[in-house]
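From the pipeline queue, job 12 of 40. The input is one protein chain; the requested action is below.

Action: predict structure.
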Amino acid sequence: METETGRGRAMAGSPLERIVSGGASALAMVRSMGVGRWLRMEREALAQTVKVTGACALGWWLAAYVLKVDLPVLVPVGVLLTVSATAYSTLVRGAQQILAVVVGVGAATVLIWLIGANAVTLAVLVVAGLVLTRLLNLPAQNVQIPITALLVFALGSTYGFERLSDVLLGAGIGIAANLLVLPPRFVDKAGKELCGLSAELADLAEEMSRGLKGRWTQDMARDWLERARSLSQRLEDTESAADQAAESVRLSPRRRRYDRRLRQVAEAATCLDHACHQLRSLARGLLDLVSGVRGLPGERGADLPRPLADELAALGRAFRDFGMLQVGGGRREDLEDLCAALDEGENQQRRLVMEFRQTRQAELSLLQGSLLDDCARIRHEFDPDTGPHRAAFPGRD
């Protein structure tokens, strides 16, 4: 029923709002998963933090005590600028950093030699650095060319060669750390993001269920729809996480070892995207009903049969169990509860069909049919045996 494409990505909010939201999401995840499972899921991030810290310390020690450079802190800076999300992107970023510093040193040295060190030279260096960054297709946030040029402008041409040696050492350490020491695998991170989004969709379905059991209003239905739209838009980030997971094993000599898990993450993202759109369509149908559009009865038709609320509660369980199956290898208990929730939803749908058969108004009958179809489609997406996304379930591909 939902045919609109959405209203664009929601505003991310202020930095403080993002911090508060992130903290609340982390606490909710700990409560739903338990401290033990949450710590096991976060061990990859902790290991990467320790690794980068060690690489920075090693870089500073080499620069200060072995090479005895004047500014040893620039080497760990080079490590931080080089180390990226995955081993493959670290290699690419390292090459970009070296290229940017070489271009910056060269441009500054030539300009200072030609026209001297003055305000005109400074302005030209900044403009030329930003233009070259774009022409060389470096990331927009990579301003190493103008920064290096300005440092050479301020500290002299001898600094340029020191800067080049520092970034070479820092980039080399960063690349070696990410390629050889616990290369980051973002497969588990993608599963965690899927789990978190599934939990939010479960919360929405359960809130809709509770609302339908009482006196729900047009404002409540509008809020459900807005939340469904927001979650639908955030699925783009989840799909990006799945792509990052595939990239994280791109240079791994044991890449085939991760193939099954990568297929599961990618298929789970697709499954959740489809189910989210169906839940969004349900929310849109409820808003249309209570708003009285297209000849619908409005608030007079808001007293819906109890089985619809019970089916939404069962779908909420299915969303939550599906998310839990994406982390920690999946537990048999979660799969069994998912199947039980799907069976419960099917039973409630049979009761709901009997209730809806009594409807005589054509417009309301069409809407009720759409609601039934949306619920059935969500159950079909999550069916681990006959559904279209068997690869999204551990051991089912």
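Job complete. DSSP finds 13 helices and no strands in the chain.
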